[in-house]
Write a structure and sequence with these properties.
Length: 158
């Protein structure tokens, strides 16, 4: 991989030198080479839903929009207050449920570990169960996830 990158850089450098000798401005040279986006770079998770909660709230249920109902993983991010997650319950379109024990304290602005979800199934709701906090106040709880396109349900016409 490193040898391929070095060869590509050498080729771009040679092209840059040739263009510079031809009188092309350096600003144009800087714009000429743009590396292609790599699939190996993970994109950040999408914001699927959010809810406001105070320090006494113990249960939050989020309805998942249809366009974001197929995810490969989900996580919970705390807002301005730390919170202790106890569990997450995922309800699928067929009525089945999956409960995942978390038992983790999230500092303000931090997210839980990613929880894998079967992307072939449609997620309807996600219920978050947390312990009441000691510090009074209100915060925003965010549900993050990696959204994927819905699987094809009809046979293709090819």
């Amino acid at each position: 991989m490193k040898a391929t990158a070095a060869c590509a850089f050498a080729a771009v450098s040679a092209i840059g030198v040739a263009l510079a000798q031809a009188g092309v401005a350096p600003a144009v040279l800087a714009q000429a080479y743009r590396p292609a986006p790599s699939d190996s770079v993970a994109r950040p998770p999408d914001l699927i839903g959010m809810a406001r909660a105070n320090h006494r709230t113990t249960h939050v249920t989020l309805q998942i929009p249809a366009r974001q109902s197929h995810v490969t993983e989900i996580a919970v991010r705390s807002g301005s207050l730390s919170m202790t997650l106890q569990s997450i319950e995922i309800t699928f379109a067929d009525g089945s449920q999956r409960r995942i024990a978390i038992d983790d304290t999230l500092r303000p602005g931090h997210a839980s570990r990613a929880i894998p979800v079967d992307s072939q199934r449609t997620v309807r709701t996600v219920s978050i169960v947390k312990r009441p906090g000691l510090m009074p106040g209100e915060t925003v709880i965010q549900l993050l996830g990696r959204v994927v396109p819905a699987p094809e349900t009809r046979p293709s016409l090819r």
